[in-house]
Design goal:
Elements lengths: L8 H8 L6 H21 L3 H17 L6 H8 L2 H9 L37 E9 L10 E5 L20 E5 L5 E7 L4 E2 L5 H8 L5 E2 L2 E7 L6 E7 L18 E2 L2 E2 L5 E8 L6
Parallel strand pairs: 1-11, 8-9
Antiparallel strand pairs: 1-4, 2-3, 2-7, 5-6, 7-8, 10-11
The structure holds benzoic acid (BEZ) and fe (iii) ion (FE).
Benzoic acid binds next to helix 4.
Length: about 280
Amino acid sequence: MRNVNKENITQAVLDSIAHTADPRTKQIMQALIRHLHAFAREVELTEDELMKGIEFLTATGHKCTGTRQEFILLSDVLGLSMLAVAMNNDKPAACTEATVFGPFFVPGAPHYDDGADVANGAPGTPCDVRCTVRGLRGEPIAGAEIDVWQADDEGTYDVQKEGLDHAQARGRLTSRADGSFHFRSIVPEAYPIPTDGPVGTLLHATKRHPWRPAHLHFMIKAPGYETLVTHIFREGDEYLDSDAVFGVRQSLIRAIDRQADGTYLMAYDFVLNPQTA
Ligand code: BEZ
Ligand code: FE
């Protein structure tokens, strides 16, 4: 086609992908083109602004490394990650709610015996975490594989520490016959998401703070059940109502209590959704 103009260019681009073989790819690309063009029209995008946007995305890509995922961070602060979680995790109200995955999960973390100290030297106040994993009818789920990960008391994940060659405040556990598992770790503290890249610039420009309320991450897998990716948030945290990535659910907030012996305790009973055939 020739002489496309601002009126007919959207249809011209849509026509150009008419033969896309995979129907889902076609649907997604059609919607992307329509919404991108509508966005440009709505804001009356200038060529300078388009170039600034391209530079922003280029810088986002350049910031990514094996352990730093600036695009996930961008999706998180734009609420896109939490929107995808919310749209794809509809389940009975009794099930534990899901929340954002975040960029700091590491596959293949060390496996620990029940009751072990997963902090493994991470600085922080020791905290015992006692949990159960059950199904909707209250049945204990034995042999569930649990990944847990968290930041230390300075708000840093092990993978962010240069020169650290072992996992800290991160590990895998297996639930026992009665569905329980427990481990020692450290009291989670609020921390800012990384702001030394383009996402930080964006937060600054839009007058947003980068803080996440204190939390522990969990991923729980068990045969016959949907995998659960979630957090437990610390009750009383000042950022529960302004999480930089919109991940807080009321049902995921728990107290961390100081025990008579001076140690801290957090508890949570997870409920997994059965997998549908
Ligand atoms: C996290 O909780 O680890 C996290 C989630 C989203 C963005 C940054 C960090
Ligand atoms: Fe986190």
